Amino acid sequence: MGMKEILRGKMDHGGIYVHLKSPKSSQRLELNYYPRGTKFHHLFQSGSELDHLAFWVHDVEKTYRTVLAKGGRKAVPPFHEGAYTLAFVKDPDGCWIELIGKRTS
């Protein structure tokens, strides 16, 4: 599909991520892998193909509260990892949604 790897790294809990980008787009596709023994590893089962969707937001903690107030369900409350703040919520179907933004504190 013409996408190129632009970033690769390791998460604090041991997961690995890769960012891919198409040449004429500013959007990125993030792929995550959780090796055996890491916090989010689980054996593959049909239906587990989509790990989560991620959205960059200006204020993770405020957005987290807003999403919960509108019916989202708690998954992982806001936390800091390096220069970023992250949080996870679940939509009505149980799909995980990541909120990520630059760390402000």
Helix/strand structural class:
mainly beta
Mean pLDDT over the residues: 88
The total of helices stands at 1
Low-confidence segments, ≥5 residues, pLDDT <50? none
CATH superfamily of the largest domain: 2,3-Dihydroxybiphenyl 1,2-Dioxygenase, domain 1
Q: Please give the CATH class of the largest domain.
A: Alpha Beta
| Relative strand content | 35-45%
Tally of structural domains: 2
Order of helices and strands: EEEEHEEE
- Fraction in helix: under 10%
Largest sheet: 4 strands, mixed
Report the CATH architecture of the largest domain: Roll
Number of strands: 7
The strands making up the biggest β-sheet line up spatially as: 4-7-6-5
Structure description:
With 105 residues, this protein is mainly β. The protein has two domains: 1-41, no CATH class; 51-105, 2,3-Dihydroxybiphenyl 1,2-Dioxygenase, domain 1, CATH 3.10.180.10. 10% of the residues lie in helices and 45% in strands. The protein is built from one helix and seven strands, in the order E-E-E-E-H-E-E-E. It has one helix at 60-69; strands spanning 4-10, 16-21, 28-33, 52-56, 73-81, 84-90, 96-102. The chain has a four-stranded mixed sheet, with helices on one face. It has a three-stranded antiparallel sheet with strand order 1-2-3, with no helix packed on it. A hairpin with a 5-residue loop joins strand 6 and strand 7 (96-102). The radius of gyration is 15 Å and the shape is globular. The N and C termini lie far apart (38 Å). The model has no long low-confidence stretch (mean pLDDT 88).
